[in-house]
Amino acid sequence: MSMFSFFKKKPVAPEVPVAPAPAAAPVPSPAAVTSDLPDLPDLLPIEEPAPKLSWMSRLKAGLSKTSSNLSILFVGAKIDDALYEELEAALLMSDAGIDATEYLLEALKQKVKDDKLLDAAAVKAALKLLMIDLLTPLQRPFELGRHQPTVMMIAGVNGAGKTTTIGKLAKHMQSHGQSVLLAAGDTFRAAAREQLMVWGQRNNITVISQASGDPAAVSFDAVQSGKAKGLDVVMIDTAGRLPTQLHLMEELKKIKRVIGKGLDGAPHETLLVIDGNTGQNALAQVKAFDDALQLTGLVITKLDGTAKGGVLAAIARVRPVPVYFIGIGEKIEDLQPFVAAEFVDALLG
Ligand SMILES: Nc1nc2c(ncn2[C@@H]2O[C@H](COP(=O)(O)OP(=O)(O)OP(=O)(O)O)[C@@H](O)[C@H]2O)c(=O)[nH]1
Ligand SMILES: [Mg+2]
Whole-model pTM? Predict the structure, then answer.
């Protein structure tokens, strides 16, 4: 699956190469290196297909705790109350939460009855399909090219992976011919500004930053600058905060309002970055940030660690905000679109 989908009216990633995108210092891509036609890299999705295998195996490794807990239940099992009870416990342990667990169990029992399933492998296959059905509404392509610039605001708790995700996204976008501007909306910590500035220099991406500036003002400047320069994407990083820090949540709302004053309808995307190891608290984060900011999407990071993955089922049931991307590490290819069938494959083996 490609990283982004492009709004049709914009001549970016065309079927037939028309006008080259106004790329700002594009990173060398395999196409640019091997071809005399440096304007064609969009025709070769550079993140595919080579990293795909290792991507799936690493996602599987990241979610192996849940997949082994779930898979072992079905090995030579009889289809009885004991199996359903063990399944309930395993789903709860995976962070699926009570609502999604009950929903999946009931739907599975019904399916077993309707289809007269008799062996454990068939029950497992049925569970897999139910999970895919549950998670598919969260799968949505990230669209670019509908706005000039597309303004994205990125929020999340401390250390969730916001800045790393912005870096990875910016590089993916560059490789698709998009010109990108970043704003260091985390104005409180010098280290946070520097992290983004240094990264921007290394990757030839302009970063707007202000020592001791007001984060809303920095964000406003970035939107103005993106508009004036005719850039494709403006991404606004924000300082980590807990939903319980009410004054900081108010500040986030203010940043969002001020971005809207810089460009009508902006931010077009308001993303919450979640550490995949957060467990059930991730759902509380989605609710709180969504209530404050009306999220358009989620990014789940660190699924390479000890994440259990079931929380996506909870999100799908309780607050179905689309999951645009998932992350399994710090390299550029470690961020990929969320694909429900792939995720369930990793989760259920
Ligand atoms: N293993 C792993 N580590 C990650 C991933 N994404 C980010 N990290 C690491 O998580 C740590 C925090 O990442 P940041 O991007 O700085 O997080 P942040 O949300 O910007 O943090 P604050 O700005 O301090 O709130 C860093 O050490 C990252 O390298 C991931 O997908 N996998
Ligand atoms: Mg940060």
Answer: 0.88
